[in-house]
TrEMBL record:
Alphabetical list of PANTHER family matching this protein: VITELLOGENIN 3, PHOSVITINLESS (PTHR23345:SF29), VITELLOGENIN-RELATED (PTHR23345)
Gene3D superfamilies: Lipovitellin, beta-sheet shell regions, chain A, Lipovitellin-phosvitin complex, chain A, domain 4, Lipovitellin. Chain A, domain 3, Vitellinogen, beta-sheet shell domain, Vitellinogen, superhelical
Protein name in the entry: Vitellogenin domain-containing protein
A GO BP annotation: cellular response to estrogen stimulus
InterPro entries: Lipid_transp_b-sht_shell (IPR015819), Lipovitellin_superhlx_dom (IPR011030), Vitellinogen_b-sht_N (IPR015816), Vitellinogen_b-sht_shell (IPR015258), Vitellinogen_b-sht_shell_sf (IPR037088), Vitellinogen_open_b-sht (IPR015255), Vitellinogen_open_b-sht_sub1 (IPR015817), Vitellogenin/Apolipophorin (IPR050733)
GO terms assigned for molecular function: lipid transporter activity; nutrient reservoir activity
First and last residue of the signal peptide: 1-21
Length: 1272
């Protein structure tokens, strides 16, 4: 009986198990379609559709032949429901030519095996065939209605869920198959350009930026040979957002369908010819870097010689055109063409690159452009090219360093690339210059890090890091600190797990046989563990804890070990152990630093510190009695962060200040930032300064009187065995640069700026070149980042999410200097001569950023593309005259003659379609098209852009703004313009705030003026002061001065020299009792008319405990009487008593129209809390100021509530606002602010610094100048 049941089950299972009869020919109709967009009505989308007939013919028991016919390719670019698919005959013919060739595949029991095709068929076409064959990969278990299993498919080895239902009427089997593409052990997906962004599991749990679902539905008919697929349908959806997909996203929807047309007996089989295996059903990626998804270029590979000549010609023309367009300015119209150049270079052979170098290296502009862009070839070719340059020695050390730095950090890390990079390490040219050698070694370490990130064979082979291990061991043998530091820094960049054994050799108390090394080398060894803190946290925890508990180690080393320890995210038990140890810590610097770090992390809100912050919170409360009152004299750590779950974005900033008991000057200062995004953590810029020898630079102590510091003489006594100051810079966690400031460098700087410098010094040569007239130009084209995520789709087409960010920087300067009287043999003569400088030039950049979401193959592209451009333009043209001894400065500027954008940000989102056969006919449709319907919807939004409710109800809205500030006197207008177009649900989905057209511009343009402006003249004179007798006397003096200045600057007086003007005017204008600290004039010169503009004079007076200053600004012109009068005074009585600052402001006609005042006071009396009071009072102010004040006052209650303040109605002074701040405790304050109609107040507000800190610091330093801290 059991045997009978078993046989019955086998028969039933075989009835439904998918299979094909080797003697039959099956004909199917296939259709596949994919579209990408927002999935919202009236917004543009992009897509493609593939249709064909598929014939499957049995060849042998498990081998079948697949033939494709009647293929058709169509593109869609427009608005769904209004536009239709358009045929692309040329691309159809190209794809059909390859698809018409036969394919062989193995198939048995619902499993697709190896796929065979002729060698000339491209991987793109084979992947399309994989999309067709994916329908035949199905597992049927009739003993279960719902079941899960892990199986291979086009998406990789992923978890699948099946649900089976048998139709009692048709006897067919309905199968639903869902593939969880987010749960794949071996996923057909790759990341590129993301090696330096560390994946964080806790961050990923907060949300996703990419979500995919795939569902298949089959209808199977039972046959004697198994289940026959009559009809199959697949639906794949992907949601992508640069933030959290819950907050709005771009959607990809792929559908495909297979319908059985006929089943016939096989008559004959045509010979297929020789074939090669092309792999199994899993999607195969085309070589990276593939085509840039924002452009499409075509080459004729069938004629190699023609292709070579064409590539060289195209590259030459492009480089020459870009170089010419960006000599005198940044050409924002051609900056996007740099991406075309990248694509052309990536399709160029090494031999053609060498040919290009020969033709371009003779011209400085063309040479620089080629070297800046060839590094983006991003594979072994660029390293071979650099290797050839090193062999030939035809590049400078500066050029070589820039090329190595970018190429090593942008190249795809493969085994052949690692071998070439290793060869560069051993080349003599690499060691020809110290900075070049540093760059080569550090960049090699970065390349090792990338290789180990992308290497799927774990562990990462030790051979790739062995050259760096050999370097550090060699430096140890020779006891060379610089070599050891360099090698350890490179090992830190590499983060190779196998390097731990070598690093341990340099760590006392950890190594079995410790070595005698300097603190500087020991510091580099500890910091080299920073990447290993993520890759091997447990080992690093053991090492850093061992270092931290060794009290005999230098304080700095223990604190560095503490930093690395917390980078490993230690568990609660380890934090508790550390806390217990700190309770008995005698070194207050270590205790203060560790406590402040624990205290900062306890407040962290980023996902990576979720568990650690809890542990630190407990530790902080235990350590507070001992450490909470330690002042800023001791070492400190600060960690500040922010994170938003809706956007999956956060930032973190850390500052470490390391000191020791030997000197209160920090021995090391480190600042760094991090960016949290889409489940990854990217370390941004990190700057570090080590001041081991800075104490010797200033002697035993710092004087408060600058004149007492013998700076120029102390350098002769500086030590030669250690650097005074060391600095390093890291980007994305990789150290790119470090340098030492030693005695020789200090001496060279002193000699350069010394007045006694003679003609043989380089500075003297620079001055001589300026007198002859000099020009300088520099352009840098740089791909700042290129990242991509590529994933297979069920159609066999690659879905790509790519980000590109490129910049072109241009600086051009022309200058000529005149010195009168001429210089003698000493440079000190420059300080007493009249120096005139005439210069013009340009500085600016153009930055292009692209974000692509869609299908990207080597023959066609479709998707959504966000295109952004940021332009900064700063042209200049002026003549300047100055005399340092006389404290005079003059500047002449030309008038504004044309409209110019100084700053521009512009971006939009497009639906794009491109194909290789018609690259010039690429389609880019704005996601929000310009249409009559859209304009109708925009009108309500334009009228109510400030109404939140109206925006929520409006599908489309178009806010616009333009604000201009016109300086008609000077003939110029500065304008800020903005415009945006948005659509749909922006209140619900934050992403949609960013999707749409955006334009923001700051521009300067000529002003509408009755008097044409010929030029602008600016003068500045500084000198000693005498306090004015009275305001009335001063106003009279200013009027006389204005009249005299106007007469002198009229056309009849312009022929006289500026020197004569100063000599004649100033004695008339000011008497001995009214001498300004400085005067400034800004006048517009206008033909035969009198000059107009403004002039200012400032005065300063210091009497015992009283500091007084005044500033007067008056308008210059025929009928001008506008004047601004300000006075400020600081009254400092004896220590501990009242300090009062008073400011009076009056302006208008003779300073009589409007007036207001501000008064602030501080008190710190014995037995009373320190108090700060401030009050602003106004009598008469302009109407627009009243409107602004009233508008701001409306928001005060809401802002106060959000900040935790309480509010009560009150009848306070009507034209006055006052505030009182009282230090209630050492770390908390009480604040009360009075407005005319209400009062807001809050008690016990925490502050980041402690009031007692200043007292402790003051007592320790014994320096009364630090009392200024209390006065603030």
């Amino acid at each position: 009986m059991r045997g009978f049941l078993l046989c019955l089950l086998v028969v039933i299972a075989g009835k439904w198990e998918p299979g094909l009869n080797v003697k039959k020919t099956y004909e199917y109709k296939y259709e596949g379609m994919v579209n990408i967009g927002r999935g919202i009505p009236n917004l543009a989308e992009s897509g493609v559709r593939l249709t064909c007939k598929v014939k499957i013919v049995g060849v042998s028991g498990q081998t079948f032949l697949l033939q494709v016919s009647n293929f058709n390719f169509e593109e869609f670019n427009g608005i769904p429901g209004k536009d239709t698919f358009n045929a692309s005959p040329k691309l159809t013919n190209r794809i059909a030519a390859e698809l018409s060739k036969p394919f062989m595949f193995e198939y048995a029991k619902g499993r697709v095996g190896d796929i065979h095709a002729t060698a000339e068929i491209s991987d793109t076409i084979v992947n399309i065939v994989r999309g067709i064959l994916g329908f035949f990969q199905v597992t049927i278990k009739t003993t279960q209605r719902v079941y899960e299993l892990e199986e291979f498919g086009i998406h990789g080895l992923c978890l699948s869920t099946y649900a089976i239902v048998e139709d009692s009427h048709s006897q067919d089997l309905e199968v639903t198959h869902v593939v969880d593409t987010n749960n794949c052990r071996e996923k057909a997906a790759i990341y590129r350009g993301m090696a330096l962004a560390v994946v964080n599991k806790l961050s990923k749990e907060r949300g996703n930026s990419v979500i995919s679902t795939v569902r298949y539905v089959y209808t199977l008919e039972p046959t004697v040979h198994g289940g026959l697929i009559k009809k199959a349908h697949a639906l794949e959806r992907q949601h992508f957002s640069p933030f959290n997909v819950k907050g709005g996203n771009s959607k990809l929807q792929a559908m495909k369908e297979l319908v059985l047309v006929s089943v016939t007996d096989t008559v004959a089989i045509s010979p297929a010819g020789p074939m090669v295996s092309r792999g199994n059903l899993v999607y195969k990626f085309v070589n990276f870097p593939g085509p840039i998804p924002i452009l499409m270029t075509k080459s004729d590979d069938s004629v190699p010689k023609v292709t070579t000549t064409l590539n060289i010609s195209q590259n030459l023309q492009m480089i020459m055109r870009l170089a010419e367009a960006n000599i005198y300015q940044v050409d924002s119209l051609t900056s996007e063409d740099v991406f075309v150049l990248f694509q052309l270079l990536r399709g160029t052979s090494l031999e053609d690159l060498e040919a290009l170098w020969i033709q371009l290296s003779g011209n400085d502009e063309h040479r620089r452009w080629f070297l800046d862009t060839v590094v983006e070839v991003a594979d072994a070719r660029v390293l071979k090219f650099i290797k050839n340059r090193f062999k030939a020695g035809d590049v400078s050390a500066n050029e070589a360093g820039q090329s190595i730095l970018i190429a090593f950090n942008h190249v795809t890390a493969e085994i052949d690339v690692m071998e070439l990079a290793n060869e560069l390490l051993s080349m003599p040219f690499s060691k020809s210059h110290p900075l070049l050698w540093n760059t080569v070694v550090l960049s090699y370490g970065s390349l090792v890090y990338k290789y180990c990130s992308y290497e799927y064979i774990q562990p990462c082979p030790v051979a790739v890091v062995q050259p760096l291990l050999d370097l550090v061991n060699d430096g140890l043998k020779r006891n060379n600190d610089l070599d050891m530091v360099l090698a350890l820094k490179a090992i830190g960049n590499a983060g190779h797990p196998s390097s731990i054994k070598t690093i341990i050799r340099f760590l006392p108390g950890v190594s079995a046989s410790p070595v005698n090394i300097s603190t500087r080398v020991l510091s580099a060894a500890v910091q080299s563990l920073r990447h290993l803190a993520f890759r091997d946290p447990h080992t690093v925890q053991d090492i850093t804890v061992s270092l931290f508990v060794q009290r005999e180690l230098p304080t700095e080393i223990r604190m560095l070990a503490c930093i690395i320890l917390f980078e490993t995210k230690p568990p609660l038990a380890l934090v508790s152990t550390l806390t217990s140890f700190l309770l008995n810590e005698a070194d207050m610097h270590v205790a203060s630093f560790t406590y402040s770090l624990i205290q900062s992390i306890a407040k962290s809100r980023t996902p990576d510190n979720h568990l650690l912050s809890t542990a630190c919170n407990i530790a902080m409360k235990i350590l507070a009695p001992k450490c909470s009152r330690l002042s800023y004299y001791y070492s400190k750590a600060l960690h500040l962060d922010w994170y938003n779950d809706d956007f999956l974005i956060g930032t973190a900033t850390e500052v470490f200040m390391l000191k020791n008991d030997a000197n209160y000057i920090p021995t090391e200062v480190v600042t760094k930032g991090k960016l949290h995004f889409i489940g990854r953590i990217l370390q941004l810029v990190e700057l570090g300064f080590r001041a081991e020898g800075i104490k010797e630079l200033f002697g035993k102590g710092l004087s408060t009187d600058f004149e007492d510091i013998s700076f120029f003489n102390c350098s002769l006594k500086l030590p030669t065995d250690k650097p005074l100051l060391s600095a390093y810079a890291r980007l994305f966690g990789q150290e790119l640069f470090f340098a030492d400031l030693n005695k020789d460098f200090i001496q060279s700087i002193i000699n350069a700026v010394s007045p006694s410098s003679e003609k043989d010094h380089p500075v003297w040569k620079m001055i001589e070149n300026l007198q002859k007239g000099t020009s300088w130009h520099w352009t840098k084209a740089y791909l700042m980042f290129e990242t991509s995520y590529i994933q297979a789709t069920s159609l066999g087409l690659p879905l790509e999410i790519s980000k590109y960010y490129h910049t072109v920087i241009t600086i051009t300067m022309n200058a000529t200097a005149t010195i009168s009287p001429p210089l003698n043999n000493r440079m000190g003569r420059l300080l007493t001569s009249d120096v005139t400088l005439v210069t013009d030039g340009f500085a600016g950049y153009a930055k292009d950023q692209f974000l692509f979401h869609g299908i990207n193959t080597d023959i066609f592209q479709c998707g959504m593309e966000m295109k952004s451009k940021n332009v900064l333009a700063m042209p200049w043209e002026f003549s300047m005259k100055m005399n340092i001894k006389q404290n005079t400065f003059e500047l002449d500027l030309p008038p504004c003659k044309k409209k110019m954008d100084l700053f521009l940000v512009k971006f939009d989102v497009y639906a794009v379609s491109r194909n290789i056969e018609e690259p010039s006919l690429a389609k880019m449709t704005p996601m929000m098209p310009e249409s009559t319907e859209a304009e109708v919807d925009l009108e309500p939004a334009k009228r109510n852009v400030t109404s939140r409710q109206k925006i929520e109800k409006t599908d489309f809205y178009n806010p616009q703004a333009k604000v201009c500030a016109e300086a008609s006197i000077y003939g110029a207008t500065f304008c800020v313009e903005s415009e945006a177009k948005r659509s749909h649900y922006i209140e619900e989905y934050p992403l949609y705030y960013l999707l749409g057209y955006t334009n923001f511009a700051c521009r300067i343009q000529p002003a509408q003026s009755n008097k044409p402006v010929d030029g602008i003249h600016i003068e500045l004179n500084t000198g000693l002061t005498k306090y004015p007798v009275s305001v009335r006397q001063l106003l009279d003096t200013l009027k006389r001065f204005s009249k005299d200045a106007t007469d002198r600057l009229s056309p009849s007086g312009l022929s006289s020299s500026r020197t004569s003007h100063r000599a004649n005017v100033e004695p008339k204008a000011f008497n001995a009792t009214c001498e300004p600290a400085f005067t400034m004039k800004a006048l517009a010169i206008s033909g035969n008319n009198r000059p107009e503009g403004y002039e200012a004079a400032a005065y300063y007076n210091h009497v015992t405990k009283m500091y007084n200053s005044q500033l007067f600004v008056s308008q210059v012109g025929e009928k001008a009487n506008w004047t601004l009068c300000t006075s400020a005074s600081l009254d400092k009585t004896q220590l501990g008593e009242l300090k009062v600052i008073t400011i009076h402001l009056r302006w208008g006609s003779d300073c009589q129209s409007y007036q207001m005042s501000v008064k602030a006071s501080t008190t710190h009396l014995p037995e009373f809390e320190p108090t700060v009071k401030a009050k602003m009072h106004w009598n008469t102010v302009p109407a627009y100021m009243k409107e602004v004040g009233q508008s701001i006052q409306k928001y005060i209650p809401g802002i106060a509530f959000l900040l935790g303040f309480h509010q009560k109605p009150d009848r306070n002074a009507k034209q006055e606002v006052s505030a009182t701040v009282v230090a209630a405790t050492a770390d908390r304050i009480t604040m009360k602010i009075k407005f005319p109609e209400f009062t807001v107040f809050r008690q016990a507000i925490p502050i980041p610094i402690r009031v007692t800190d200043f007292e402790e610091h003051q007592q320790y330093m014994g320096n009364t100048t630090l009392l200024m801290h209390r006065e603030l």
